[in-house]
Every structure is written in C-alpha cells, then in structure tokens.
Fold these 4 entries.
Entry 1:
Amino acid sequence: MTVSHVHAPDDGASHVAEHDDAHDHSHHGPNFRALFVICLALTIPTLVFSTGLPSILGLSGPRFPGSEFVPAAFGTAVLVIGGRVFLTGAVGELRARTPGMMTLISLALVVAFGYSLAGLLGFPGMDFWWELAILVTILLLGHWIETRVISGTRDAPAEPGDDTALAEIGRLVAEAQAGRSGAQLLADRAAALLFSVALGAAAVTLVAWLFLKPDDPAFVVERVVTVLVIACPHALRLAIPLVIALSTALGARRGILVRDRAALEEAKDVDVVLFDLTGTLTAGRQGLVSITPAPGVDEAEALGLAAAVEAKSEHPIARALVTAAGERGIKIPRSAKFASLAGRGASATVGGRELRVGSTRVATEAGIHLDPSLVHAARDANREGATVVLLLEGDTVLASFALADVVRPESAEAVAALQKRGVRVAMLTGDSHEVAHHVAGKLGITEVFAEVLPAQKSAAVAKLQAGGAHRVAMVGDGVDDAPALARADIGIAIGAGTDVAIESAGVVLASDDPRGVVDILTLSRAGYRTMLQNLAWATGHNVVGLPLAAGVLAGVGFLVPPAVGAVAMSVSTIVVALNARLLRRLRFRR
C-alpha cells in the first residue's frame, strides 16, 4: 500500500467536530483578513473623533457639530461588520450547549457596546467606542493569524501514491480524528469549566471594582471586558485535537494508519509487544536456507540445475529455488520435458540429463542411498523447522536444499529497538518448540509461546496482561489473529494482513516492516508529550491571565487593556498550534 498526500479533516480551530457550525476558522479564515482590513479603516475615524483616547494621550481631534456621534457611528459599524462573526459563533455555541470562546468574546463586546451606548444617551461615563473598535479589530487580526497557523498545523503532506490507497488512508485518518478519546473529553470538560470560571471571575471583578471604584464605571467595564476577552477555553479545547490531527496525518506519511484514536494515545503505555511469527516477523513465503552438495558436486551448479527443473512450476518451493538462483546470479539452464510429480516434486531434462527434485521421501521409497553429509544436513534442517528437498539424477543424490519461511531482515532490528526502549518482546506461533526457539534465538527474543492453536492466541495475550499489570500490543496479520488483536490493549495489523485482522486492530501498518511498531510507540509518546505541553500552556495562560486582567496589580500601576487581553488570547492559541507543528520534526527510526 502506498501513501499519498493526506490532509487532516477540517477540524477548525476551536473546533472539535461539534463546534464546527459555531466558528470554524477554516471556513471563515479567508474572511478574517478582509474583515480586519475593513474594521481597521473604520477604527481610525473612531479614534480620531473619540474623546476617550485623545484625552488619555493629551490630544484632541477635529470638532464640529455632531462630531460626538462619529465614534458611535463608526464603532457600531465595526461591531456590526467585524463583531458579527463572533456574535454568530456565540449563537452557534449556545445552540449546541457548548459555550466557549465565542460566547465570552460576545459578552465582552455586548458589555462594551452597552456601556458606550449608555454614555451616548447621557448616562455617566466616558467615551468607550474606541476601546470597542480596537478590541474587535485586534480580535479579527488575532483570529486571522490563528487560521493561518492552525491551517498549516492540520495539513500533513505525504508520499505520492495511488488514488485508491489515498482514499482509504484519508478515510481512516478522518475516522480517527472524528473519534472522541478520553484525553479529548477531559480537555473539553476543562474548557467548559474554564468558561464558568471566566464568567465567575468577570462577576467577581464587576462587584469588587464597583465597591472599590464606584465613581469610575469606565474602569470597571474595562476590567470586566478584559477578563472576558483574555480567558481562552479556545486554546484549552484545541490543545489535544491539533496534536491528534497532526499525529494521525503524520502517521499516515509513515504508513501508520490509525483506526482508533484511543489506540494511538494508549500506545505510549505499552510495555509488552507480542508478535505473531508467520507473516509478521517472517515473510510468510519459502526461502532457501542452505545447500548441501554431495561430495564432488559444485553448489552453484546444483542450485542452477534444481532451478532449471522447477522453472516451469508454480509451487512455493519451486519459486524459492528459482528466486535463490536469480539472487545469486546463477544462470539457469534451459529445461525440457517438464513433469509435475504429484506429491513427489518435479522432473525435467536439463542439458540431456534426466533430473528430479523431490522430498526425502522419494529417495527413501526408492531405496536410494544418501551420503552421510546429506543425512546430517537434512536432520539439522528438520530440527530447525525447514523443509528439505533433494536434487536427483537417476539413483544419485546430487544435493539437498533446506527451505523455510523467510525471516524478515528488519525483524531483528525491530526487536532490538523495542528492547532498547525497555519493552518486553514475546513471540507467538503454532510451530513446534524447536522451530520457535530457533527463530526466536536469531531475533533475540527470549519469551516464546509455541505450538499455540488459533483459539489459544487470545489466552496468550491475557497471560501477558497479567490482570492489567501490563499493557500489551499484539501484532498479527491473519484471520486467526483477530481475537488476539481484539483482546490486546493495542491491536496492530500488518498491512498485508487479512481484512478480518485489520478490522480487529486499532492501528494498521501499511507496510510489512515490523519496525513500524517502533514508529507507533515513538509517535504516541511524542504526541502525548505535546498534548501535556499544550494543556500546561493553555491552563497557565488562564491561571496567570485572569487575575492580571481583573486588575490584581492595579495598586502598583499594572493594568491589562482589553486590546492587550485580546492579543494574549490569540497568542495563547497560536502558541498551542505552533507547538503542535513541532511534531513534524519528530525523528523516527530511519
């Protein structure tokens, strides 16, 4: 299976799936820039004709009859044109019963607008239109930058490949990202709690400053608005989805197809990996292990003759002999009079010589004598689980060939890499103890389950789990592996495996390379670290920002204006997105 260009589905910025209608940045992203430019142009006359900002700066703008209404007109235009996206988003959040960032921003805008309107109608207070206009404009700028950063985070280019594979990979990635994991649910609950905390903080701020500064309503409103704006459940809710969007797409680039988001998250805790032998650590096909020529017979010539006899056969052993000759650069002679001998091999004429390739049973039944070296070689090969075939000319045995399931060259590296990480590696097979321990010894595996029937594989997984004391990943490819894959904490299907195995797994390796298991653990652990970093940042921003916005340091002259609060809110989201993008620098095994 090849991998093509994969994009994470459109999560939108604050926007786990259920929030898309409320405020999907990816859909509104192109508009934020235009809205920012328009509102910036409208904010300039609001500032020029305002009485609030010029008085603070010791400046005065032009005055003419009715000029006091200019800030109100332009400030209202800014709210209607630029603030509409936030107000609409708040309505969507409230309809979905998931109030969050848009609701808090809208409350701040409504409070600022209400106070400004009250001043225009003659109630005590100062001109606040300029604050409202700047706040909306800064919010639009921040969200425009956010969309660019988050859009770059969600997209993950992958290797070119065929459209069919691309569609399947895209479907798996989309399903994984649409799923709800425990970590995401926790972040959503924390974001919902933060919304309530922000509302409570705004209420406390209002009451406290009304008591402390009853003669300065503009100051009170400014503090309340800043508290509402600086609170950022947005970053908290994004802390995990952005990492998942990027890690699943990044995994697809590496041939790691995530069917279950929770499986990828939980892979970080795996401390035992159980490999099924056939088709996982081995290639599931016959390969030539050794050649033992009779005294006086050339090894290469014997292999060439055997390959010539089997050249027209489709039997796995025949293919293995032909492939081995080709890999060794041996020229295969032409053959004639090929005949398949049911259950006994094949015969052919090669260079005028009548040759046969068959099992040791053929020689035994014909009473053909084998040289002692051939007998010993056959016994050793059988002990290691190999199949032995003979090359015969008449009643003379020219050579014996030992063939066995080919151990993948990457398997030993995969086992060593896992063990280096402190992960126990075990092997499961239906083969005999002798064969199982022989292969395990070559791979460096000491824990072996041999002569295991298909129905017993799930029990082997349960034994390794030891009642929950260990997190076990099962790696397999066959129909009979499906129950064990489902029983394991993490089921990993090799890409060439059966549909049943793939459906039972939480993660699928698109290639047959067992080193992909190491990549899964690497990706899971890196993603988890990034999630923790994002959550820590998003939480810390609010823990520090809310008290400062409320004015706890007002006594020493430190105050956070609403516009600065808006910038801080956007910066918090941008930091979370940029930190998620650092996953792209993740170094895998090669």
Note: The two ends are 19 Å apart (CA to CA).
Entry 2:
Amino acid sequence: MSRNRNTASISPSQPLIDATEQASHDEGDVTTVGRNVLIQGLLRIADIRYESQFIQTGYRASSNSIKKSVRSILSIHNETVNIWSHILGCILFLVIPVYVFTTEIPPRYKVATREDIAVRTIYFIGVTICFFLSATCHTVSNHPSHVHHLSVQFDYLCILILMYSAMIPLIYYGFVCDHFLRNMYWGLVSVNAGLCALSTMHPRFRTVKAKAVPGRFFPGRFDIVGQSHQILHAPVIVAGMMHVMGCLGNFDYCHEHGPRCI
C-alpha cells in the first residue's frame, strides 16, 4: 500500500505501539493536544483496532494506560462524540428513574404492583448499563488490539442488554391476560439473548462491518463529528426516552381500563 510522504509505513505484524512511537518522531503525523497525542495520518489502518479507513484523522495514540484513556475524555478526538453522547445518556437514565419513581409512580401506587415496579426497574438498569459500557468501550478503544477487540465485543453486548431489558416490560404488558404465554416469551427472549451474547463474544463473528455512511462518501470530513457510529448514538438515547413513555402509557392503560381478556 502506498503512503503519503509524511506517513510511516507499518507491516501488519508490527505492534501498533511501535508504530505510534515511530509516528511520534514525524511532526507531520501527530498533533499534541494538552497531554494527549492524536495520530493524524492513516497509520492505524494496518492495525485491526481501527475498523474504518474512512476515518482518517483524530486518532489517539495507542496506550496501555487506563488513566491516560480516561484523561483523553476531556480532549477532542474522533471518539469524543461517541464517549460523551453515552456519558450524557447514562446520566440522563440515572435521573429519569428518580423522576418516574418520585413523580409519575406515586399517584399510581394504589394500583401499582410489585411486578409493575420490577419490570420498569429492569429496563432502567439495562439502559443505564448499556450507556455506561458503551462510553467505557469507546474510552479504551485506543488500547492495543486484544483490549480493543474485547471493548468492541462489550460495545455490542451492551446493545443486547438494552434490547433485552426493553423487552421485559413490553412482554409483561403485552401478555397481561395470559401468564403462560408471558412467561414463555420471557423464556424465549432470555434464551435468544444468551445465544446472542455468546455469538457476540465469539471471535468467529467479528467480521461484520457497517456501511460507514456518510464517511465512505466523504473520507476524512466526518472524523470528529458526523461519523456513522455517532449518528447511531443519538437515536438510541431518543428511543430510550420514548420507551419510558411507552411503558408508562402501557401501565396507565392496563390499570385504568383493566385488561380486556378474551
């Protein structure tokens, strides 16, 4: 593969930490921001911890230090939006349950059951874990390949946790008239979630790639803001809030009108 004049070449077998050390001697390839170093060339493509060749700049130097990775949260790089969107999402879904359980639930306590509280709590815990794990995974994405692979797997796993926890209240209110079907669907969803978790963590299923829109059409233009993965993050937060509203609506309908069982 040909490289620009100021870009150091890396063999696929060469450790990334060596490549970043080599790049650090070439002023054309790195930019120092505070205490953090952002790689600016295409050095990282040879290493599999970087999935998209369309994101060309803003990479943090490979690091074995959790402290340095956490410190980089306050810097501008191509993971900043991914990290902060889900940090804010995590904070939001720590606050929303406080509002729901202190403002929305008390007027309903006379009809609320332990199951009502439990299924909603499961969802809040699941979505909070999802956003926390996602922010953590993006924070440590500048670690060497073996750590990065694990972080990517946990990033996918947190999506599964969100989907699973969201299904619990939907199934509860959807099959309020038939406890057998409700429990059967809970069991099926749990088994499917477990199988998905196993496949997510298995190396054989690491090959699926996203289409990387809009970056694939404008390589390098959306490195910091506008990546396809960033576009995914915002709707997830909005969808989480809409799901909360839907759960409250299901609660009100079931307890206000009573289950209409045939």
Note: Helices lie at 16-23, 66-71, 80-104, 114-139, 145-174, 179-201, 228-257.
Entry 3:
Amino acid sequence: MEKWNDLKIPFADIKDATKDFSKKIGEGGYGPVYEGELLINGECMKVAVKRLNSKHGQGLKEFLTEIDLLSGQRHDNLITLVGFCNEENEKIIVYEYADRGSLDGYLKYGNEKCTLTWLERLKIVVDAAKGLDHLHNHLPNNQVIIHRDIKTSNILIDDNWVAKLSDFGLSKSTFSGLGRSTVISYACGTPGYVEPELQQSWMGTRAIDVYSFGIVLFEVLCGRLCNVKYGDDIILSAEVAKKYYAEGILYKIIDPVIRERQISPKSFIKYSTIAYKCLEPRRWRPSIDVVKKALEESLKFQQQVSPSLPTHSISKTEWNSLQIPFAKIKDATKDFTNVIHKGDYSFVYEGELLVHGRYMKVLVKRSYEEFGQGLYQFLSEIHFLWKVAQEYYANGDLDKIIDPSLRKHMNSESLSKLSSIAYKCLHDRPLIVDVIKELEETLKIEMEHEESERLKSLSISYEEDISDEKSL
C-alpha cells in the first residue's frame, strides 16, 4: 500500500471531519456513508465518507480494489477518490461529495415535486454513459475496467447536475484486444440489473455493464426502480420493459410527469430503441460507445424543442396561469355537445370561452384515460409499423399489408419504386434530393398508368356505345 501513501488520511482526522460520524447520509451495500468536511491541501472540502462494516461482507479485497481503480482515474463523470484510512479494524474510503445525491432518489413515479424533467434525465444518462465509456474504451495501455454494479444508486449527481459513476468495489480490471476483455466473474451485482448470461456462465465482458445500463435507462424513462411495485401494480424488469417495447405500448409505463408534456417524439424513439438494444442477448448488444452516441442524439433532439436545461424540477405552479377549471370548459362546450372531430384517443369540441373579459371561439380537445396517451400510442405504433413493414418488404410480401382500397388501383412498377425508396430511407439514408427524384419518377409512372387506365376505360365505353347503336 506504499504507492498510495499520499492518499492516506488518519482516522482521527476523519473522525473530526464527520463529527464522530454523526451525520449519516446513506447506507451502502457494505456500510454507512457519512457527510464531513476535511482539510485538504489547506482548503476545507466537503466529503462523503464510506465506513466499511465487515458484517456486510466487504473485506480487504474489495476495499483495495476500489482504492486501486479509483486512484488512477480522473474523469468528469467518475467520482473522485479523496483518500482512505486503513488503521486496525477501520477501513474507510473518502470521496468527493455529490451534493444532489444519487439518481435513484429522483425516480418517484408520478410525483412532480421530487422528480426530474426529461431534459435533466437525458443529461444525466449521457454523463453516466461517458463515464462508462471511459472505463471500457479510453484507459491507457489497453486497460479495461468492468464496473459490474451499474445501477441508479451508483450514479451520483453533483451541485452542477453532473452525473458521476461511483462504487467500484466489485469492479474488475482486464485488457482489450486479442480476446482479453473477458474476465472470470461470479454472478455479482444487484438483482434485476444482472444479465442472464452471467448467471449461466462465469465469463464476464463489458457487455454486462451495458445490460445493467439498459435497466437504468428504462428506470429513468419510466420513473420506476426495477423490482419495486408501484400503485398500478406494474413491477419494472427487463422482461416487462422488452415486452412493452416490442408490443408498441411502452407509453403505458412511462413516467406520467414527462409523458404528458415533455418528450420530443424523435428523442423518445431514439432513446427507447437504444435502451431496448442494451437488453438484447450479449452477442447483439451494442457497445457503450454506440449507446453513448445514441443518447447524445436523443439529447440533441430534445434540446431542439426545449433548448435550455432547467436547474430545478418542474412544478405544477408553473402551469397555473394556463389552467382552466373543468366547470368553465363544460359550460363553454355546452356539456361537450358539439363534436367536430373524433380521433382515436380524443374528441374535439367547439365552444365559446370567456377569456380576459371577452368571449373567444375555441376548440377543446378532450382525451380519455381509457384510450391511453395518444401521442405515445401514435409513436409506438409508428415504430412497430416500421418493424413490420421492414420484415414484409424483405420477404417480398409488402402487398399483403397495403391499404386494400389502394392495392387494386396501384401500378406494380410505381409500388416497387415507392417501397424501395421508403426502405432506403430507413437504412442507406439517401440525400433528400435523391428521394425527391425517385418520388417524382414514381409519380410520373403512376400518372401515366392512371392515364392509360382512363383511356382504356373510355375505349371500352366507346365500344359499348357503338355496340348498343348497332343493336338498335
């Protein structure tokens, strides 16, 4: 332990810093965590002090592992090791203090007062992905660190809302290249976050962290911790998340606080797609750098519709000025009598509402709970339709799912050309000028076909008229 001499902190100093361990701020897997103030290089620094308890099962090995791995790391999205104490029976690790606590504390399903906006959630998971990407892909000498216990309670948030990975006691170090990024690993970690493959084999790779991170992504989207039962009796798990995604009904378990007014459609689709891929079997699972890139794109899409990152959680009071009592809306629409449009998930009514002292003609859209959330039903169905259309196109069976009212009128050549460019838009992503050119050619083919059919119809009609005249 001589190489860490500059990190050693006397027990007496830690005891003073925590006021004899009087302010407990949490309970980790291996012991309590305390808040303290420690004098470091002449400056008073707020710190978090993890005091290991042998009764919890963490021994010298895990203690040394955490010090070894953290002492060599300096990254904005990894918690900083301040020092440690190893005197007699005391094993203590001192970290930088994360003022805003851990991510799990903000996942309160349906509670607006203690939750995060969608933009804040995206920023946090992007930060966490950056930290994990650093461990997997950017360490010197081809070193790789597999965290092995990625979960929301191990993602800490500092005063500037920067997220940092923490708790490296179970981590393993290996090397990349030549098939060496595999480690012998017993099925450790937290139930609900551990990939199925690790429970069947002792061979662990970086993919085990990606799977755990996928669970985190769904927890963040749904505002639910995995394996916890909420008021709607749904318990979030990998199986549940995958089922709801595959069936196109993911909107049903999204945190209602963000579902109703915050998520950009592009952001939602990009995010949910990569979250799902993280839970796929190991051989198909993306690497963390791919996940990070997708999350950054999701964040970019969201910033286009809500460019500023709030520094506080959203509150109902912010919307009070726009709220209209139901009784007034009921009167304005004469008890919802004049329906002018019926949608799949809502009705639209005409009415007259007194606004700022004058009557204004208004449209009132009334959504029904039993219909679910229209926007996310729409998004999920679009995403599901894309998968179905892709499969039918690849198998040459696209005509089986075409609108029957169109099928008998369509020219086979124009159909082939249209479906081909549609498929390319989802895969090769051609330039829009090329798409326009293809569509114009398709339109020309279809117009020529329709003109030909029209002339043919006129010819048949003319021949029938001549025949009728001759019969007279």
Note: Confidence is low (pLDDT under 50) at residues 309-319, 369-373.
Entry 4:
Amino acid sequence: MPVAITSYSESLFKTVKYHYTFPESPFKCLSEASGWVEQFMHWYNDNHQHSEMKFVTPNQRHNGLDRTILENRKKVMEQARRERTERSNRRKTRNLMPIEVVYLNPGKDENNVTENKLQLKMVLELIVKQKVTSIAHYRCKNTLRV
C-alpha cells in the first residue's frame, strides 16, 4: 500500500537522514534502530532550537516556556544595545515576539494535523526498516516505539 508523503514527513525524513548521528551502515537489529530513533527524538524535542520558533526547542514551546525565554532574550539584547551603542545603532533589535502557530505550508497544513502525525510515524518506521537488512534482524527483543 503506497504511503502518501506530505511536507511534514518529507521534512522529517530529510532531518533524520542528514542528522550527524545517522549511521552509514545498517542497524544490526530492530532494537538498535529503535534506540537510535529514541535518541534522535530526544535531541529533536529537547535540544534542537528551531529557527521558525525563534530558536526555542519543541518541548519548550509545548510546555509554554517559549514566551519567558523570548522575553529574557529581549531584555538581554536591549541591555547589550544600551551598553554598546557604537555596535548596535545601525541595526534594529531582533524580532523576539512569540509566534502563535508554526506550519510548513501555511493554509494547506492546518487541516491535516492528525493525518500528518500518523504519516510521520509511518516515515520513521520506513526509515528504520530501510536500515534493517534481513528478516533475522526482526527477531530482536525490542519492538519499534515511535
């Protein structure tokens, strides 16, 4: 059955495939692949600062911390601007207003949120299966958890 790949899943696929920890050789078993995906998800949600979200992590945004972080950044930047007028008079202060909603394709994506979440899970499963090279590898104890 063909999988319809949306902009969300294509974006995730590229992020995964080009991540510096993505192995060059196949995973030895499904549990190794599952472990890698778990580590990747931790990095993506807790460490990766997204430019479209004003450089906060997805978990910071999800937990409502983005507004506080952006307010603190704005205070620091304004203080630095006041202290170093010779360096900062030429430029405007960076826009640190929190954004309300993030979409890859505004207008198209708003109606497909649930469908896209399911497809993201399927894409991660496909990526992991690509790296498992034989049926014997499926006999590992752990199963894929996405």
Note: Residues 113-131 form the longest helix (19 residues).
